[in-house]
Structure formats: structure tokens, C-alpha cells
């Protein structure tokens, strides 16, 4: 390694990115590819043409794995398929996530379980499966979980989302404690308010949009590209001594 910038390079690395079809997942997959990684993207959808194209434009390979992360039985296939395509796995980005909005007083078991299953339960078992793969192949690995402002704040009308994202922050610390000694770095990124399908309803509500924008010190919604620096950093050797931390990429939202 010649210098600090080389420590950020991901040449020869393989990243599994869940929810890579669109939004923040696509943005992070493309950033990882630009840094040198091949990408195994996971999504509901049968294919992810825009992500595949952008990864190819970076000179890297993209393999798509269709899977419903509401169920755990897809996890062995995700790891096996990524391994079959690329021969190793070095990075896991747990990005796929959903949100259900309803008053806490009316919130249903279905709304609770649907969010917890995708946002927290599958994330834990994917972390476990990836860590087993890292240990099998040797050389450690990097896990980056996608948290939220609601890992730090309570939010409103999103009880299962807040529970899941607060859980992500805690789980990230627990896994770091158990696996740091095995050369596996587990960290998280907490995006602020980002312009994706996930926030389309908020941005479409003129009053909520103005309230949110007025509270963001940077004065704009974030973009998928805004996560590129943090995800490449945490996936790289430059972050080898960072364990269990949740980095906010939020235009200053939490500083208010
Ligand atoms: P998005 O645009 O709604 O995209 C969600 C992604 O997750 C899609 O690729 C989707 O795949 C995938 N996904 C959802 N449920 C799935 C399932 N059951 N099985 C497989 N894939 C599934 O969301 P986003 O805004 O990019 O959010 C990505 C992550 O960032 C989420 O964890 C979210 O909670 C978090 N986050 C977002 C914001 C924000 O402001 N946008 C802020 C903080 C945290 P398909 O396209 O195939 O359905």
C-alpha cells in the first residue's frame, strides 16, 4: 500500500448490497463499484438494469439476486449465489428496508412484523451468514448496516420503523463486540432525509417538505450519491479500526 488514498481502494473486493435496485442501495452499489468492487445486488425485483449498467460503466461486474428479504430461507441462496459468481465475499451492505406509517394507537401486528422482518430480522441473519463466509474464507470482512435518524430519535407514526432502526444501531455495536477480534468490522450509516421513493410521500406533502427542509442545516434533501463517501470508507482498509459506530450522513440534522 502506497499511501492513504490507496487504503480506500476496493479493487478485487466483492460486495453484497441488498436493495440495490434503486434509491440509496443503488447509489452505494455504484460508489463501491467505482472504488473497485464487484457487486452482487439483492432486490425484490427480477433485475436491476440501471444498477447493472452503472456498475458496468465503472468497469466492474454486477450479478443480480432476486430474493424477498421478508423471509429468512433466501439467505443461504444469496450468499451461495454471490460466492458462485465472484468466488468470495468481502463486504455486506444491509440496505433493503421498508416503512409503514400509522398512528401508534391503530398500528397493526402486520405493520409491525412486515417492517421488523425486513429491517432487522433478515439483517441479523444476513450478518451471521456473511460473517460465517468471511471466517471460512479468511481475511476478515466489512459489514455496513443502514440505520436512520430514527436510530437516534423517536419519530412519529412509524413505531416499527423506529424500533427496527434503533435495533440496527444496537445490533451493530453487539456484532462489532463479538467479531472485531476476527477482523470483521461492523458499522452503520444513518442517512438523514434523502430523496428516494421511501420519502416520496413526505416530499409530496408541501407542509412536511417545508418543515423538514427548514430543519436541515445543509438546506437540501440528501441524495443517494451523498452516501458514497461513507460507504466506501467503511468498506475499505481505511476504516480497519472503526468498530460498532453509526455514522450520520444527514446534512447536519442531528446537530440541530
Ligand atoms: P427505497 O427507494 O424504497 O428502496 C428500497 C430498496 O429495498 C429497494 O431496492 C427494494 O427492492 C428493497 N427491498 C425492500 N423490501 C425488500 C424485500 N422484502 N426483499 C428484497 N428487497 C427489498 O428505499 P431507500 O430510501 O433507498 O432506503 C434504503 C434504506 O435506507 C432503507 O433501509 C431505509 O430505511 C434507509 N433510510 C432511508 C432514508 C431516506 O430518507 N430515504 C433515510 C434513512 C434511512 P425492490 O426495488 O426490488 O422492491
Automatic annotation (TrEMBL):
Domain of life: Bacteria
Keywords: Oxidoreductase
Database matches in InterPro entries: 2-deoxy-D-gluc_3_DH (IPR011286), NAD(P)-bd_dom_sf (IPR036291), Sc_DH/Rdtase_CS (IPR020904), SDR_fam (IPR002347)
EC number in record: 1.1.1.127
One Pfam family named in its UniProt record: adh_short_C2
GO molecular function, one term: 2-dehydro-3-deoxy-D-gluconate 5-dehydrogenase activity
Coiled-coil residue windows: none
Family affiliation: Belongs to the short-chain dehydrogenases/reductases (SDR) family.
Name by which UniProt lists this protein: 2-dehydro-3-deoxy-D-gluconate 5-dehydrogenase KduD
UniProt lineage: Bacteria, Pseudomonadati, Pseudomonadota, Betaproteobacteria, Rhodocyclales
GN (gene name): kduD
Amino acid at each position: 500500500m502506497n499511501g492513504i488514498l490507496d487504503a480506500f481502494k476496493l479493487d478485487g473486493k466483492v460486495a453484497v448490497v441488498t436493495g440495490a435496485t434503486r434509491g440509496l442501495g443503488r447509489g452505494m452499489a455504484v460508489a463501491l463499484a467505482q472504488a473497485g468492487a464487484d457487486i452482487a445486488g439483492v432486490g425484490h425485483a427480477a433485475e436491476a438494469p440501471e444498477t447493472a449498467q452503472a456498475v458496468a460503466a465503472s468497469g466492474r461486474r454486477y450479478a443480480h439476486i432476486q430474493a424477498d428479504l421478508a423471509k429468512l430461507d433466501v439467505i443461504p441462496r444469496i450468499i451461495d449465489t454471490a460466492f458462485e459468481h465472484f468466488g468470495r465475499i468481502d463486504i455486506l451492505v444491509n440496505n433493503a428496508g421498508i416503512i409503514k406509517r400509522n398512528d401508534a394507537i391503530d398500528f397493526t401486528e402486520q405493520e409491525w412484523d412486515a417492517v421488523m422482518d425486513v429491517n432487522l430480522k433478515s439483517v441479523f441473519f444476513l450478518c451471521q451468514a456473511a460473517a460465517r463466509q468471511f471466517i471460512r474464507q479468511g481475511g476478515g470482512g466489512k459489514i455496513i448496516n443502514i440505520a436512520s435518524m430514527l436510530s437516534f430519535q423517536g419519530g412519529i407514526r412509524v413505531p416499527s420503523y423506529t424500533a427496527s432502526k434503533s435495533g440496527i444501531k444496537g445490533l451493530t455495536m453487539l456484532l462489532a463486540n463479538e467479531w472485531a477480534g476476527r477482523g470483521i468490522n461492523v458499522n452503520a450509516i444513518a442517512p438523514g432525509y434523502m430523496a428516494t421513493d421511501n420519502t416520496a410521500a413526505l416530499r409530496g406533502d408541501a407542509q412536511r417538505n417545508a418543515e423538514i427542509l427548514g430543519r436541515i442545516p445543509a438546506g437540501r434533501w440528501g441524495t443517494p450519491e451523498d452516501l458514497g463517501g461513507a460507504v466506501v470508507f467503511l468498506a475499505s482498509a481505511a476504516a480497519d479500526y472503526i468498530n460498532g459506530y453509526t455514522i450520520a450522513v444527514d446534512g447536519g440534522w442531528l446537530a440541530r
